Amino acid sequence: MKKKMIITVLLPCITLSLTACSLSSGTPIDEHYTKISDAKLGEDAKIAQTFLQDKGYQVLAYSSGTSSTYQLTEEKLNDEEDLYENHKWALQGVRTESYIGKTVNNERFIVKNHPLDNWKSGDTVSKGMTFVDVMIVEGKAVGGISVPYTKEKMVGMPYSLEGKTLEEINKK
């Protein structure tokens, strides 16, 4: 009886401990993200990571699989059916015209110590982390966007890198 009780109590504890150990050793935080300590960063990703750390964010994970590269064009910025790119650039507070025709590399991370870590809207609540994209042009971080890390997939326009809405930025 004692032997059976010890196995019943200890087995779940051992299993939980082993699971916790495996999660701390290289398992992705999210299906597309790898812990930053295990990630192999290219040059632009290293620039983006330093940029985020200089802003005071703790970089937790990197996603090479969801980072992207594109050429910024007038057409992309003025696409009536897809306002996302126009919105993203409007959040930057930079002269967008100076980036037309240039290659933009978006490097995607999960960070902590960000204003959106405690974001809430109705029943949707941040999990204490934030998704960020850093925009790299010609080897320089020129800005980025952020989205709360929630259980539910977020739909809509992103926030500025600092977690501000377009309305908040335009008030300045």
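That was protein one. Protein two is written in the same sequence-then-structure order:
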Amino acid sequence: MESKNKIALVTGGSRGLGKDMALRLADKGIDVIITYNTSADEAQKVVDQIKQGGRKAAALQLNTGEIKSFDTFIEKVKELLNAEFGTDRLDFLVNNAGIGGYKLIEEVTEDFFDELLNVHYKGVYFLTQKTLPVMNDGGGIVNVSSGLTRVSLPRSSAYASMKGAVEVFTRYLAKELGARGIRANVIAPGAILTDFGGGHLRASEQSQKMVSDITALGRPGEADDIGGVVAFLCTDDAKWVNGQRIEVSGGMLV
């Protein structure tokens, strides 16, 4: 079964960056499945907004840190594709879901490290692996990294290390999936004013000033600075962009 419309799966699509990614994908004419961890009501609002714009959309619960749940999740995706979208394949995977975690190296515990590892690297690796059999050839994968892989700020060693691993993984995806025409790229947002990481940037004028001072465009990012770049990577306009890290930071410490 082939759907006329392209379909994207966006993890963590109920709020923040993921929400904007889902909405901007829909603006490009792409149908969207979003996942949420706990925010079912917020996810439904995103689905409703996309449907009001004339695209198909649906939401599924997923904790991207629980790798053993992925087989069941993929079965639910297949059922949803058949029931709601009239197909058995999707075209794009956007690995966006994440959690914040900020500690000095001497304060990092194994539990803290493992939680970040599962969500930001192991989860991304194995969810991608499990999704590949239900992806159409000629599609694409967009992983979400961080400006913190290039710019080192205290308290982000564990988080940034996981994101660095995702950047390497993305290049290997591009290499191994090229035969299927599947592109893989990674975006690296700078400091963004969302509720990510407890909204620590949004709550601190001092941090916002620091970010503004080191950013060429003179301000922290907003969620709507990011989603359009992901949407672009899921269109034919980006058909020759592959294996790339695109930093979306307004020129932070250029």
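Residues 200 and 207 are 8 Å apart (CA to CA). Keep this in mind for the problem set.
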